[in-house]
Predict the 3D structure of the following.
Amino acid sequence: MNIYPFIVHVGPLEITGYGIMMMVGFLMGGWLITVELRRRGLYEEYAADITVAAVVGGIVGAKLWYWVLSGGSLFSRGGLVWYGGFLGGSLAVMLNGWRLKVPLRWTLHLTAPALAAAYALGRIGCFIVNDDYGRPTDLPWGVKFPQGLPPSTALNMQQQFGVPVAPGTDPATVLAVHPTQLYEAILMLGAFALLWRLRTAPRPMGWIFGVYLVLAGISLVAGAAALMT
């Protein structure tokens, strides 16, 4: 199955599927935090504070991480590296909580389910922009990205990723690859469902964030396995 990037052109402005899903992820995360604050009868506006801090810190952190690792332009459209975004967003959210004198354990508790849901939506964005896919596969759900970032051609597999292809394969052949973006999205949606249920458990405040870190680690390992197999 061939998958093409989702791009909308509005005059000179280019809107990508990843940008849309990233925005949806932030909004969904903020809404989930609002729901939890409302359930507990707490100050709901803290959800907006968290969301704004996560957006600003996440984008700055992602771009800085990309710049340090690759030396790319800080002002290019690309370069939104998840690890840098997570670190930058987390730092901004924690500093904002400290500024508002909100205990860190409360912020961790509120953001754990929201992070899982937002990450799942972000990975769907990666899929529809044709980025961050896995190795070639013969499985029936393998997908081809003729216009991916980069296209999943035999030449790119060999030159950019060091993945061997069958001898005699035309370098321009578009190969079916693992949709690792969807693997991780499914895993993190399951993680969100579990965390959302556990948030009401009579446990010490903040413990649920530890569960999120374990589940996020499992998702990353599973995605890495698809990249290597």
